[in-house]
Amino acid sequence: MTQDIETSRLTVNGLTAYLARPAGGSESGMLLLPMVTGIGEQVREWAEAIAATGVTALVWDPFHGPSSDDTSMPDLLAKMPELDDAVALDEQTQLLDHLLGELGCAKAGVIGWCLGGRFALILGGRDHRVANVVAYHPTVPGETPPNHTMDAIAHTGLIKAPVMMLYPTADELVPRSRFDELQSALQGRVTGPSLIHVYPDAEHGFANKTRHGTPVNAEAFALSWPQVLDFIRVTTKI
């Protein structure tokens, strides 16, 4: 059963963010880490779908304003090398603090897509307050970009919370060898269950509705999203 929700733009310690939550709030929360679109329409829709299940959703703004609503994809892609791991993780931690503080959540997890999926794995390894980690097609490329100063695979092995990771085998950015390393890191943990999804022939970013003109991507999302929502609900339940 879906719940009535309320949405707003807000500022947390100077950081812009998007909030969707059940009317009156919730003790369960999720920090959302977007893909290259920033806080565009697609990510807001996901936040609102999570809120409709009874979970507060707070969205990090990777580019401090620009999003797919008002900025071209080439311009957004050009901003990616400017993202600094340490700065981004500090911002995400401040938003997690806000979820677990002013927003009244007793438990909160993290979900990310693409670049946000990589950050979700790193944040989960760094901050053991998270109740879960969901990584949709995390961008951990074969050749590490200069601005990727934190080792996503090493941090993945440090996560103590339940993890759901979703990998498309036709991912043009993340070779199968990288997925195998991430999977080994998850399965080598001594605490925290791992739910690993593999979607044959689906492409990087298959969750984004702009890629659903390709049937295999639409089918992968249609199968995965209800399971992700259930995973979030169960792991953040008080």
TrEMBL record:
All copies of domain Dienelactone hydrolase, residue ranges: 16-233
Pfam families found in the cross-reference section: DLH (PF01738)
InterPro entries, per database record: AB_hydrolase_fold, Dienelactn_hydro, Dienelactone_hydrolase-like
Superkingdom of source: Bacteria
The name this protein goes by in its record: Carboxymethylenebutenolidase
Protein species of origin: Amycolatopsis deserti
Lineage: Bacteria, Bacillati, Actinomycetota, Actinomycetes, Pseudonocardiales
